[in-house]
Design goal:
161 residues, alpha+beta, two-stranded antiparallel sheet, 11% strand, flat
């Protein structure tokens, strides 16, 4: 590599000059604290007794479920899943709602990848959006509702609630 090579310069700056692919990087010696120094404090973490959750909850009301979860788990609040609402509200349907370029549909055997998004995926996206809105309201009820901004043209914006 030449001196003008940006990769060589970056490797040298990272202390990896001369290291070949597949080789381990040379380990730097750990600095030893002075005898009169106190050891560093442990890293900050959440308080003792903090808990979170994952899995399904009974019921069909996302606002009530989010309020229950936010009340019981205020530090590490989980997003509740309510599969009793039907297709698209289960874990696979919610994950399908997050997919951008992969469309899915429901068949008798389960979910399958398809060429274009159908009503099943649109339903999953709508259910996930409802869950996230209820979650936002439950964790911070004082904050005003989200304002959605729609661009109508190159210079005009319209705000809706």
């Amino acid at each position: 590599m030449t001196a003008d090579d940006p990769l060589a310069a970056a490797l040298a700056a990272a202390g990896l000059a001369g290291v070949q692919p597949g080789q381990a990087a040379p380990s730097a010696p750990a600095p030893e604290p002075a005898p009169d120094e106190e050891p560093p404090a442990p890293p900050a973490r959440w308080p003792d007794g903090a808990a979170t959750g994952v899995g399904s909850m009974p019921g069909t009301d996302p606002r009530e479920a989010a309020a229950v979860v936010a009340g019981e788990l205020p530090v590490l609040t989980a997003l509740p899943e309510l599969p009793d609402r039907g297709v698209g509200a289960d874990m696979i349907g919610r994950t399908a709602g997050l997919l951008v370029d992969i469309a899915v549909e429901v068949r008798p055997s389960g979910y399958r990848v398809t060429a274009k998004p159908g009503r099943d995926q649109r339903r999953a996206v709508d259910l996930l959006r409802t869950d996230l809105d209820a979650f936002d309201e439950a964790i911070d009820p004082v904050r005003p509702p989200w304002v959605k901004v729609q661009v109508a043209g190159p210079w005009t914006l319209a705000a809706t609630r």
